[in-house]
Amino acid sequence: LLPLVVLSILAQGLANFTILLFNRRARGKEWEMAVASTFDEHVILVGLGHLGYRVVKKLIELDQKVVVVELDPEADLFSTIQIMGVPVITGDATRTEIMSAAGVLKAHSIILCTQNDSVNLQMALKARSMNPTIEVVIRIFEDDFAEQLRQQFGYKALSATTMAAPIFAATAADIEISSPIAIGGQPNSLARIIIKDRSSLINTPINKLED
Fold it and tell me: What is the pTM for the complete model shown?
């Protein structure tokens, strides 16, 4: 038989876990990191601004697993993202320990969409140094700089002219997106989707596929 003190410790631990599981308010940074540690082949999104929030929503629609990193998240965006079941890690993504907590070693791709080009580039280099195979989708406001990053580093650099959230999300999900083409004054992009064997999209009508 287990000693009484051991049973007491186990019971207390189970009670604490139950509280964390059902009381979202009690969940702190450690809980968010614990949830993120269970993910693999996921997307890391850095920068929970209004663009980042829209990108997360699109990624969820694309059935992607997402971990968000934000240094100073707004309370309303933070709570909304948590309700969606997405772990939010509060911290500086240029730091190795924060990247590790977000699961960069197991992630499929990382989206860097803060409003600071130099910080985005710094985080991109950090992510690639830790995981050389990770896909990097980086927000860059200068068109020429974005093109240089695409050519020299293989980053999927999106400039200020392609700031639509669906494009960020689709790019991270390996859906090929062309540069915007102006038609009637409105930017339009082409996307190529490869439908693999046993995909649920096989024999789907075009109008349903568009949806």
Answer: 0.71
pLDDT tens digits for range 20-66: 554 444 457 888 899 999 999 999 999 998 889 999 998 998 889 99
From residue 92, how far is each of 19, 99, 170 by CA, in Å? 28, 9, 25
pLDDT at 142: 79
What is the chain's percent helix, strand, coil content, to nearest 5?
45, 15, 35
- Give the β-pairing of 135-139 and 181-183: unpaired
Number of H helices, E strands in the chain: 9, 10
55, 45 Cβ separation under 8 angstroms: yes
101 CB contacts (<8 Å, ≥6 apart)? 33, 36, 37, 89, 91
Task: Count the Cβ atoms, other than its own, within 10 Å of residue 181.
Answer: 10
The phi-psi region of residue 6 (left if phi > 0; otherwise alpha if psi is between -120 and 50; otherwise beta) is alpha
| Range 115-122 contact pairs with CB under 8 angstroms and sequence separation of 24 or more | 115/47, 115/49, 115/139, 115/141, 117/141, 117/142, 117/145, 119/94, 120/46, 121/149, 122/94
- For residues 191 and 184, what is the distance between their CA atoms, to the nearest angstrom? 19
